[in-house]
Design brief:
Length: 124
């Protein structure tokens, strides 16, 4: 259903291999939770931009082990993600229909409609 490919300007990204219907589950992948005390060490690695805030007060981090860990940010995303702490997973679903070859994007703020700034200059 999805694959990793190169974008024109953002490096790697996730793309639809086939048509994905609105509301369809794209991927649900497991996470490893990083305790609060270890996040400072994670922030000094190449993984610093790849974890999700986790836990009831977002004090922990979660590393996602799935292709959607490489979804790029957009303020007009075609997918959304949901944290599933009871299953220790994060699921990604289509916000609208996604065409084959189209890049799959999410809003890194969690809320797909959030215009809040993110920690790096976005392309879109």
């Amino acid at each position: 259903m999805i694959f990793i490919g190169q974008t024109a300007s953002k490096g790697r990204g996730v793309f639809a291999r086939t048509h994905i219907a609105a509301g369809a589950l794209i991927e649900e992948a497991p996470v490893v939770v990083v305790p609060t005390a270890q996040i400072e060490h994670l922030d000094r690695t190449a993984l610093c931009d790849y974890y999700f805030l986790w836990g009831p007060d977002e004090a922990e981090a979660a590393l996602l082990f799935g292709l959607c860990s490489l979804c790029n940010h957009s303020y007009q995303p075609n997918a959304l993600f949901v944290l599933n702490p009871d299953r220790m997973t994060i699921s990604f679903s289509a916000r609208r229909a996604i065409a084959p070859g189209e890049e799959i994007t999410t809003n890194y703020n969690g809320d797909p409609d959030s215009p809040a700034p993110i920690w790096f200059p976005p392309e879109s």
